[in-house]
Amino acid sequence: MKNRNKRILSATLAGLIAVSALSGCSGGGSSSSSKSASSASSSEKPLEFSYMSCINAAFAEHTNNKVLSEMQKKANVKIDFTWVPESNYDSKVSAMLASGNIPDIINGGTSTRALLLSQGAIVSIDDLLKSNGQNVLKRFTDDEYLYLRNADDGKIYSIPTIVDFPYCFTWAYRSDIAKQDGITKDPVTWDDWKTMWETVKKKNPKMVPYCGDIYSLMPAFDMNVGDKIGFMVEDGKYIMCCDSKNFTKFLNEMRSMYKSGILDPEFTTRGTFSDTANNLDNAENSGLAFSWMSWAAGTQDATNMLQKADKNALYKSIAPPKSPIDGSQRIPARNKLYYGACFTVNAQKENKLESIMNYFNYVYSDKGAHLSSYGIDGEMNTTEDGKAKIKSPYVDNFINARANGINFTPFTHYFSGDAFMQITLGGKSKDQLSEPTQQFYNGLVGNKDYLFAPTPCLQTKAYQDQQGVIMPKLTTMIAECVIGKISVDDFYTQYKALKSQGLQEIIDQGNEAYQKIVKAK
User: Fold this and answer.
1) In this structure, which topology does domain 20-25+45-165+335-365 adopt according to CATH?
2) Peptide bond into 393 cis (omega under 30)
3) How far is it, in rounded angstroms, from Cα 215 to Cα 475?
4) Helical packing angle, 366-374 and 353-363, nearest 10°
5) pLDDT tens digits, one per residue of 215-227
6) What is the number of other CB atoms lying within 10 angstroms of the CB of residue 265?
7) 400 Cβ contact list (under 8 Å, min separation 6)
8) 239 has a pLDDT exceeding 50
9) Which CATH superfamily is 169-332+432-452 part of?
10) How many CB atoms lie within 10 A of CB 42?
11) Would you say residue 30 has pLDDT above 50?
12) Cα separation of the two ends of the chain
């Protein structure tokens, strides 16, 4: 079920205005002031609206699935779906806007939302959420409004898909190779890892001791970075990672690791947060990678692949290293909020806004969430000891589940962590798991005490206007410093110049937005 292709557009819109009114509603139940879509009489004419979303090949053949059909039936709704291949989705959205034929709902992430906003094609839904979307609001915590609000005007423009399962990443290493090389204990500290990497490099010169990008190593140096963009919060301020008090030490360590052959020589193009994440998959599956920090599913997938040739091969999940700075252990949590259903000016013109929000209020209700997470009662799940259990073949893997509409990600919905784990483990109990799947499981729940929520990239005007030029330059500068093409002093000289070219404005606007959100809680 592993999907590393940056399968979901980052939900990182942030806010500028007070959220106290909405925050006060976030723990509430169904709205008593509006009619729920699920309460509509079957004799009433169904609500009809149009919905456009990107879709990848894995879902394209399953758009007429059981759960989507059941959801519409229960809510007395008829949806006219338009499914667009995810390649060049934004260009196709642009063409749709130019045609003037705009659907009622357009589903998309940060870049799509920014495009729609720039064209005045969508409307804010703050008031609608308060009056008709209580079940949606109850799925958010106060902190998550940071991911919901538009940075420039502070308004909410979309309902995100919610995957309520924070576990995703793990550190892992080839325990069979370590044992073969005389390493008998799991590494704990950063120095333990370095000692192991040096041993592996000496005895296995064809392997890459640490395989992946350098951004995945930043948390080990007390920088809560969870992507290659590199924004973080330190001492209460929204900053670029390069301004962290720990960045110089991190940069020097990366330079040393690269020079000694420990760091991946292809760190710019191979890693969890690189633009070609599948290159890391290939390195794991081929046995090139000795260790990495990435999706926990990699321990299962790569081990299964390697054991076809060597039954002893095993990627072992392990806790993140203790920081050489303060001894803390950190690993990024999964983004909870994905994509976003945007309400368009067409729905507003046709006076459908409240009715459509009523429908989503049903989708995010306990009954709607149960349907999205566990499927149709009796047919796709059973009840055991008062809990829903997904049946085979739907629970066997995410391919089967999504083909029938469980966690069908092209459509906005809520997906529970319990259902996620059931499908992850194929419906098996912990003591029934194979060794590779056991490592997958360990990588998920074994890191629960080390999770941090990565800071979102706030989509301010300065960021949207200048990131296309500024951020690639910064990425190149960091890489050139790591490989020794420029010195650390040269890097900071160039970094200062880049700030004067627009980076400082991006940071300042991001911090201003962040501070207003924090004060509004």
Assistant:
1) D-Maltodextrin-Binding Protein; domain 2 (3.40.190)
2) yes
3) 11
4) 60
5) 999 999 999 999 9
6) 11
7) 393, 394
8) yes
9) Periplasmic binding protein-like II (3.40.190.10)
10) 8
11) no
12) 37
* Residue 328 burial class via C-beta count within 10 angstroms: exposed 0-12, middle 13-18, buried 19 and up: middle
Q: How many CB atoms lie within 10 A of CB 449?
A: 9
- Torsion sign across C-alpha atoms 191, 258, 282, 170: positive
What is the pLDDT, as a whole number, of residue 27? 30
Strands 208-210 and 289-295: parallel
Are 165 and 335 spatial neighbours (Cβ–Cβ below 8 Å)?
no
* Burial class of residue 106 (count of CB atoms within 10 Å of its CB; 0-12, 13-18, 19+): buried
Q: What is the pLDDT of residues 116-140, one digit of tens each?
A: 998 999 999 999 999 999 999 999 8
* 20-25+45-165+335-365 and 169-332+432-452 share one fold: yes
The token duo for 265 is 């020589």
Instruction: Say which amino acid occupies 159.
Output: I
Spatial separation of the C-alpha atoms in residues 59 and 314, rounded to whole Å: 32
For the chain, domain boundaries? 20-25+45-165+335-365, 169-332+432-452, 461-520
Q: How far is CA 482 from CA 57, 252, 290, 502, in A?
A: 38, 8, 21, 23
**Is 112 exposed, middle or buried, given 0-12, 13-18 or 19+ CB atoms closer than 10 A?**
buried
In terms of DSSP H, where are the helices of 19-75?
A: 20-23, 57-60, 66-75
The pLDDT assigned to 277 comes to 61
CA–CA separation, 518 vs 521, rounded Å? Answer: 6
With bands split at pLDDT 50, 70 and 90, how would you rate the model's confidence at 168? very high
For residues 2 and 397, the answer to whether their CB atoms sit within 8 Å is no
Return the DSSP state at 217: G
DSSP structure class, residue 481: H
Q: Quote the tokens at residue 54.
A: 């990107």
pTM: 0.83
- Measured CA to CA in angstroms, residue 79 lies from 50, 103, 105, 406, 413 at distances of 6, 11, 10, 18, 15
Residue 462 pLDDT exceeds 50: yes
